[in-house]
Amino acid sequence: MAAYLIANLQVHDAQGFARYGALGEVMIARTGGRYLVRGGKLEDVEGQMGLTRLIVLEYPDMASLRAFYFGEDYKPLLAMREAAATSQVTLVEGCAP
């Protein structure tokens, strides 16, 4: 069953985040993930969720997603992201269609 990483980012170093983004895009693809949402305009229609930059990644399953996020290869990129942005990140299992 598919699994998703949902992140809300507040970028405070655009250049550093751009470097992270370029490297992260390659790693995400290499580890079996894909972007479903990557930034874009947000429109609140019921209440305010406090979202600033929404990211949604899809992985084939939770094991693959966890292997990516908690893996040794991602640790240096995670440090880059943390230096360039404040983030709230959630991993969630999908549901059967």
Task: Give the secondary structure arrangement, pairings included.
Layout (H helix, E strand, L loop, with lengths): L2 E9 L2 H17 L3 E5 L15 E6 L2 H9 L4 H10 E9 L4
Helix pairs in contact: 1-3
Q: Could you explain the architecture of this structure?
A:
- This protein is an alpha+beta fold and 97 residues long.
- The chain has a single domain, classed as Alpha-Beta Plaits (2-Layer Sandwich), CATH 3.30.70.100.
- It has three helices and four strands; from the N terminus they run E-H-E-E-H-H-E.
- It has helices at residues 14-30, 62-70, 75-84; strands spanning 3-11, 34-38, 54-59, 85-93.
- A four-stranded antiparallel β-sheet has the order 2-3-1-4.
- Helix 1 runs antiparallel to helix 3.
- It is globular and about 30 Å long.
- The termini are close together.
Task: Please give the share of residues in helix.
Answer: 25-40%
Gross geometry: globular
Strand content: 25-35%
Which stretches are poorly predicted, pLDDT < 50 over at least 5 residues?
A: none
Structural class: alpha+beta
- Count of DSSP helices? 3
